[in-house]
From TrEMBL:
Gene Ontology MF annotations: DNA binding; transposase activity
Domain of life: Bacteria
Pfam families in the cross-refs: DEDD_Tnp_IS110, Transposase_20
Transposase IS116/IS110/IS902 C-terminal domain residues: 212-293
Domain Transposase IS110-like N-terminal per the UniProt entry, residue ranges: 7-147
Name by which UniProt lists this protein: IS110 family transposase
GO biological process: DNA transposition
Amino acid sequence: MSLIKAIGIDLAKSVFSIHGVDSHDKCQLRKTVKRNKLLAEVAKLPACIIGMEACSGAHYWAREFTKLGHEVRIMASKFVIPYRQNEKNDANDAEAICEAVSRPKTRFVTIKSDEQQAVLCLHRIRQGAIKDRTALINRLRGLLAEFGIVMPKGRYPAQHAISGILEDGENNLPMLARELLSDLWQDIKALNQQILKHDRKLYQLANQMNAARRLMTIPGVGEITATAVVATVSDAKDFDTSRAFSAWIGLVPRQYTTGGQVKLGRISKRGEKHIRTSLIHGARAVMANCKNKTDRTSLWVKDLIERRGFKRATVALAAKNARLIWALLRSKNEYQIDYVK
């Protein structure tokens, strides 16, 4: 068997397909192994390039394969699909991964450490709890509407009014419904406590991370945004420019250019939804408090609001903050108001 140059592994829960090629791109390895034998199989191979699609477990396997001396590259599935031949199956997917991993223009995902994934785990659990709380409030609102009781709009006004509605004995709410809706209200309060616990943990982590503390010097970047960025981006040098970083978050216009005619649309909304949402929320908070400020950013924001409207200005400020985040991660400096190069 010739020396293997690169292999592609199609990750799964129990059974993994492997496809390997030599320096002449000829197939030298094509087999299927079970999960408990994958590490042993890869350990037999000489040091080579290993390609995998970004999916659940990819970063774990990447760390394990790196310990064995291999160069591991993780890529998005959209870069693999064009290289798949014939029908979709595990063997053809592994072959396509092996082909895509050796292409010079394929972009790869930086391998995350255990600590980074632990922080992201906290973010995902917090997001899930917020989603569950919203669902419960909407459920409570809908069920009360069946009895002609309308809750106020907004999370805070709604939660403030729930106790009074359930304790009001003159609203003709049946006892069974009152008991069931009270249980829902207890679940909402439990989720409030759970989310508060997660927030406090994020604040604690943010103060322990040097990079996160630097990012929090940017107006509109708080503990949630800073910890999410640090846990997701291993090295800012993976992005050539600040615009590339902003595009990865999905804050640049979608482009459709042909025949020399440039057409820019709305933001692409690709990439990291959680970071993009946090940046936009932070930008909205900054804009709400910039009326009486005279620094360069506040003056720029106020002028932009007059010319383009509040929502477009919000996205523009979020994109600006994304570029500042990239710059601070690269330079390891702190944000300076009215900085002049």
